[in-house]
């Protein structure tokens, strides 16, 4: 991976493409229409609808540019096609057991834009993901958590 490519799972890229399509084909035309309607009302100096629509247009255009940049620099990885021979790599789903309290957990390692702890998706740049990368099933790993270091055992590594 070169310094300017951003890893993203296939599903993450699909979600960004869906958002980009919605912004370009639904939100952008709607805000252009809102600006036209506000202009038709006459004096723009005290027209709150016009100001709000222009502000929203700026946000939409900025987000479109951001998404296009991310997608153009993305290295799309399909976890189901990985052949990492049991090692923890980007896109892998890792089943863990906390050796301190016996709690089991499962995380998929994803790109920064895809991270969602509620969905058990952790960022590649998070401390736990950095500790797990390159390790294998059966390895015990020390992970820095907010409450201090925790020992976790890798129960399984899946590429789904």
UniProtKB/TrEMBL annotation:
User: SUPFAM superfamilies recorded for this chain?
Assistant: FKBP-like, GreA transcript cleavage protein, N-terminal domain
Instruction: Using the record's annotation, list all stretches that form the Transcription elongation factor GreA/GreB N-terminal domain.
Output: 6-76
One GO process term, biological-process aspect: DNA-templated transcription elongation
Domain of life (superkingdom): Bacteria
Q: Which residues form the Transcription elongation factor GreA/GreB C-terminal domain?
A: 85-159
Q: InterPro entries, per this entry?
A: GreA/GreB_C_sf, TF_GreA/GreB_CS, Tscrpt_elong_fac_GreA, Tscrpt_elong_fac_GreA/B, Tscrpt_elong_fac_GreA/B_C, Tscrpt_elong_fac_GreA/B_fam, Tscrpt_elong_fac_GreA/B_N, Tscrpt_elong_fac_GreA/B_N_sf
Q: What does the UniProt function comment say about this protein?
A: Necessary for efficient RNA polymerase transcription elongation past template-encoded arresting sites. The arresting sites in DNA have the property of trapping a certain fraction of elongating RNA polymerases that pass through, resulting in locked ternary complexes. Cleavage of the nascent transcript by cleavage factors such as GreA or GreB allows the resumption of elongation from the new 3'terminus. GreA releases sequences of 2 to 3 nucleotides.
Question: Which family is this protein grouped under?
Answer: Belongs to the GreA/GreB family.
Q: Which NCBIfam families match?
A: greA, PRK00226.1-2, PRK00226.1-4, PRK00226.1-5
Q: What is this protein called?
A: Transcription elongation factor GreA
């Amino acid at each position: 991976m070169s310094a300017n490519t951003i890893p993203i799972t296939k599903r993450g890229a699909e979600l960004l493409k869906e958002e980009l399509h919605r912004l370009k084909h639904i939100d952008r035309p709607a805000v252009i229409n809102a600006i036209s309607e506000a202009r038709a009302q006459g004096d723009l100096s005290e027209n709150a609808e016009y100001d709000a629509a222009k502000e929203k247009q700026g946000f939409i255009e900025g987000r479109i540019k951001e998404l296009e940049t991310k997608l153009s620099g993305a290295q799309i990885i399909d976890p189901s096609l990985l052949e990492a021979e049991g090692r923890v790599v980007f896109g892998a789903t890792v089943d863990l057991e906390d050796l301190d309290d016996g709690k089991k957990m499962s995380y998929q390692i994803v790109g920064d834009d895809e991270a969602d702890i509620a969905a058990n998706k952790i960022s590649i740049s998070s401390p736990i993901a950095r500790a797990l990368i390159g390790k294998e099933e059966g390895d015990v790993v020390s992970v820095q958590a907010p409450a201090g270091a925790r020992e976790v055992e890798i129960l399984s590594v899946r590429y789904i």
